[in-house]
Amino acid sequence: MHGRVKVRTTAEQDEIKRRERAEKVKLYKAGMSLAFDMREKGEKNEKGLSVSAKLLAPNPDIYTLWNIRREIILHLKTLKSDDEFAQVMEDELRLTEICLKNQPKSYGTWHHRCWVLDNMTNPPWKTELALCDKYLSYDDRNFHCWDYRRFVVKRSGVSAEEELKFTDEKIAENFSNYSAWHLRSNLLPQVHPDPNGLKPIEDNQHKHELELVTSAAFTDPYDQSAWFYQRWLLGRHTPELRITHVIATKKVVCLSFNRSVSPMSSDIMVKAYGDNAWQTVDGEISSYVWKRTFVDATTVSEVAKVPVELVVREDVRQSASLAVDGEQACYWEQPVFEASFSPGVTEVLRNVLDSCQTLLELEPDTKWPLLTSVSLMQAIDRKKYKAEVLKYLDLLAKIDHLRANYYSDLKSRCVMEHQLEEWDVGNDFCLVSSGLTALYHSQCLLPARHVDLRQNSLARSLPRLASLQFCQVLILDENGLKNLEGFPSLPNLQTLSVKKNQLCLPENIEPYITLCSALINVFIDDNPLSATHEYCNGSFVKVPK
């Protein structure tokens, strides 16, 4: 055995490590105790910086120590010359670099570095950009570094064009760089805005981006970074604010918008008959539907003579003339859900769809090509691809079951949009047994008087019914309702049918319909409640046994 190196046993190694850890903990506790004692005594000096530096170097996530350092530095600023203070700040930058080597994703370190630069007379912005490049070369998904780069770019005045070129480089290095794609989506509207202001970016660049991201997506169909970016390119753009419906009676005027807006907004004003303040119909701060009541009853003909004007930032954007229809004065616009793309962009979209279809032939259960195909079909021709879109959404709910409810809601949106495009506002609105799990675009139902939504799953969507201000008959049979919590105030509702649900007690219904002042009939057949109660003269009464 002589001459051989002694090999320590596992137990000996564990004991050595235990002692080392114990010693480190002892030193750490002593250092923390000293740092807090000095802070409590108001000792703001170089010793405090030295103590906290030794603690932070191996463990930079102790946020309180960074706060202590900032307190000391601000105090030293009042005592030192400009050159001396500049040296203090240089030392801080060096400390943060040491910390980043040990923990490149330390919130406290990156934040402290931002603070240091903001308190320097001449921050070395070029050096900081190089630092970002270095750390992103180590890990191109280090979102702490991406955030820091945005800070440096903003402070140093780097142009959006230069940053866009930087995203080109990072994406070329790695198609899977989600942060680079995300930054690109923020920069493109600045560098290549749509001249008409209707879309995020202009047509030629839009075509280029679609071609670029398609190449990335098909390089690795299972990576979601490029698919997310592609969905942004295909996404619906925020439409210009418009009034889509106006209905006026002797007592009230209601109007709906294509976007949710607040009556309290100083930028938006609607000029119409009456002086009372506008209110949202659902009691929320912002809503798709507003109403204004009249103090004194007026005639519909008087209301119809007053044009409705939408004023945005003192600019008249829209004027609507009401047409008298019996006891109402009305205005409405046909809803438009179709995206508008140029022929050139549409051709690119068709090519991308063909590529998705080819990929799905090889791998039919791949999530992202399926979901992207849905977006592409809706962008190219919603009516033509209606059946395929609904089929794909059903398939997605099966293969991506953790997000099944999302796909069900997305399908509900598609079904609702197709029905609204075909609906004549003079007729009843019916969406029976349509698989609805959410009620989208309910503001478009403002003129509806008879709404039939039986055999769906709308228990979560009762508050969305607030738009039915002129509805007289509402059918919610077979919707899995256990109660009517969230049911809105519908002043013209006369008949409510909730047959074949799961309503057991009067308390499941009665408290939620008290604000429906015109309500006469509530049909509760084939609910557990119907065996013991019936609705009569505005309340539920027990049925004699």
Automatic annotation (TrEMBL):
<keyword id="KW-0637">Prenyltransferase</keyword>
<protein>
    <recommendedName>
        <fullName>Geranylgeranyl transferase type-2 subunit alpha</fullName>
        <ecNumber>2.5.1.60</ecNumber>
    </recommendedName>
</protein>
<comment type="function">
    <text>Catalyzes the transfer of a geranyl-geranyl moiety from geranyl-geranyl pyrophosphate to cysteines occuring in specific C-terminal amino acid sequences.</text>
</comment>
<dbReference type="GO" id="GO:0005968">
    <property type="term" value="C:Rab-protein geranylgeranyltransferase complex"/>
</dbReference>
<keyword id="KW-0677">Repeat</keyword>
<dbReference type="InterPro" id="IPR002088">
    <property type="entry name" value="Prenyl_trans_a"/>
</dbReference>
<dbReference type="GO" id="GO:0097354">
    <property type="term" value="P:prenylation"/>
</dbReference>
<keyword id="KW-0808">Transferase</keyword>
<dbReference type="GO" id="GO:0004663">
    <property type="term" value="F:Rab geranylgeranyltransferase activity"/>
</dbReference>
<comment type="similarity">
    <text>Belongs to the protein prenyltransferase subunit alpha family.</text>
</comment>
<dbReference type="InterPro" id="IPR032675">
    <property type="entry name" value="LRR_dom_sf"/>
</dbReference>
<dbReference type="Pfam" id="PF01239">
    <property type="entry name" value="PPTA"/>
</dbReference>
